[in-house]
Amino acid sequence: MTVTNSATVTPQVLEAAASGAKRSAQQVTAALLDAERQTKVERRQFSPEALLGNWRLRFTAPKKPTYKAGKPQGSGFYMPGLAIASLCFSRDDNDQLTIQNQLQVGPVKLRFTGPAKFLPKKNLLAFDFVRLQVLVGSLTLINLPLRSKAAKAGDFVATSVAKLPFFSFFMAEEGYVAARGRSGGLALWVKK
């Protein structure tokens, strides 16, 4: 009987899933949970620069996967090729972080944009969507400001993270990143 160390198996599973090789949903979910646990144990910190760029959602486990009796529980699914969900993190002219979350089905794009802030001690990226756009190809059909939580509070920078949506990142590799969202789900994005 061969005993494998999850610390060595986890990167292999995530790299395979990120590169397009199919691993079972349970394997990928377990690898994400193991990576999250390892990051917490090692108290790894990432810089916001590691997150900059365009990322395509490859895999998600939305039902709050966790450990039960020491074993990973929960499952997820690969994003279908028909729907392309993506995140883009960048810096604006004032060197402030911004986020763009987009879902594309055929030529139709639903896009949310807004400011973001990164808390390095927790690898937490909090954000607030302030604009909604609907595009068909390069033609903008809808371009509306959103009345966001931070706008109601008066200032995004001063708004407590407890009042904002966020991603808690636990992997930030050159070709992929992984995080747990405020709702408890896990996600694996690959560099576009």
Task: Explain what this protein looks like in three dimensions.
This is Plastid lipid-associated protein/fibrillin conserved domain-containing protein. The chain is α+β, with helices and mostly antiparallel strands and 192 residues long. The protein has one domain (6-191): Lipocalin (Beta Barrel). It has three helices and 13 strands; from the N terminus they run H-H-E-E-E-E-E-E-E-E-E-E-H-E-E-E. It has helices at residues 6-19, 25-42, 149-153; strands spanning 53-61, 66-68, 71-73, 77-78, 83-91, 97-105, 108-119, 124-127, 131-136, 139-145, 166-172, 176-181, 186-191. The chain has an eight-stranded antiparallel β-barrel with strand order 1-5-6-7-8-11-12-13. Strands 2-3 form a two-stranded antiparallel ribbon. A hairpin with a 2-residue loop joins strand 9 and strand 10 (139-145). The longest helix is centred in the N-terminal third of the chain and has 18 residues, at 25-42.
Notable traits:
8-stranded antiparallel β-barrel, Plastid lipid-associated protein/fibrillin conserved domain-containing protein, disordered N terminus, 192 residues, two-stranded antiparallel sheet
